[in-house]
């Protein structure tokens, strides 16, 4: 199952500090039972929510656990909660594992109804915000190949900001 978080940073002057905080946040997330992997991305073209994080979770029960509530969730973002907007959190069913997107590759996030020339895995939104009904993802090994998809309606091409981190 995938927990997908999408957002924009309002305070762009503090981007480097936010990136450092977010990496530490990812490491904290994979210390929570039920969160198995995480990777973070940024859109290569302007988007209302240019930052995407994919977290592999065992199920929606993770978000009601005492450990998750103590370490993460909206309360766990501290001062950064007020410095982000267009924030959407969806639990997606239908894809068991988050992909391991190579640093030289790209994650392609696809909206329902988009015409795609590449294979896409689809997942249904089953929890948290449910801001989308379905979401598709694809991995393209070459950034240059992925860039040919920029500008397609309902398609967001994202570069990895971090390698995929896996829980111990």
Summary tags:
168 residues; alpha+beta; Alpha-Beta Plaits; eight-stranded antiparallel barrel; 3 helices
Description:
There is one protein chain. The chain is α+β, with helices and mostly antiparallel strands and 168 residues long. The chain has a single domain, classed as 2-Layer Sandwich (Alpha-Beta Plaits). The protein is built from 3 helices and 9 strands, in the order βαββαββββαββ. It has an 8-stranded antiparallel beta barrel with strand order 1-3-2-8-5-7-6-4. The radius of gyration is 15 Å and the shape is globular. The protein starts with a strand and ends with a strand.
Question: How do the strands and helices of this protein lay out in sequence?
Answer:
Elements: E1 2-9, H1 15-29, E2 35-43, E3 51-57, H2 66-71, E4 84-93, E5 106-111, E6 121-128, E7 134-140, H3 143-147, E8 155-160, E9 165-166
Antiparallel strand pairs: 1-3, 1-4, 2-3, 2-8, 2-9, 4-6, 5-7, 5-8, 6-7
Q: What letter string, H or E per element, gives the SSE order?
A: EHEEHEEEEHEE
Q: What name does the CATH topology carry? A: Alpha-Beta Plaits
Q: Proportion of β residues?
A: 35-45%
**Count the strands?**
9
How many strands, what sense, and barrel or not for the largest sheet? 8 strands, antiparallel, barrel
Q: What is the helix content?
A: 10-25%
Strand order of the largest sheet: 1-3-2-8-5-7-6-4
- What is the class in the CATH system? Alpha Beta
Which runs of at least 5 residues are low in confidence (pLDDT < 50)?
Answer: none
**Radius of gyration in whole Å, from Cα?**
15 Å
Given helix and strand content, the structural type is: alpha+beta
The backbone outline, from C-alpha atoms, is globular
């Amino acid at each position: 199952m995938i927990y997908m978080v999408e957002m924009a940073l309002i305070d762009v002057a503090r981007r480097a500090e936010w990136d450092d905080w977010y990496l530490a946040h990812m490491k904290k997330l994979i210390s929570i039972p039920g969160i198995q992997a995480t990777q973070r991305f940024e859109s290569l073209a302007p988007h209302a929510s240019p930052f995407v994080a994919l977290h592999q979770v065992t199920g929606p029960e993770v978000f009601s656990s005492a450990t998750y509530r103590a370490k993460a969730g909206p309360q766990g973002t501290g001062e950064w909660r007020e410095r982000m907007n267009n924030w959407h959190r969806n639990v997606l069913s239908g894809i068991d594992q988050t992909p391991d997107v190579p640093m030289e590759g790209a994650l392609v996030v696809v909206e329902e109804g988009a015409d795609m020339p590449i294979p896409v895995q689809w997942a249904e939104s089953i929890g948290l915000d449910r801001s989308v009904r379905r979401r598709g993802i694809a991995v393209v090994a070459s950034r240059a190949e992925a860039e040919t998809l920029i500008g397609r309606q309902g398609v967001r091409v994202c570069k990895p900001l971090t390698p995929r981190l896996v829980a111990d």
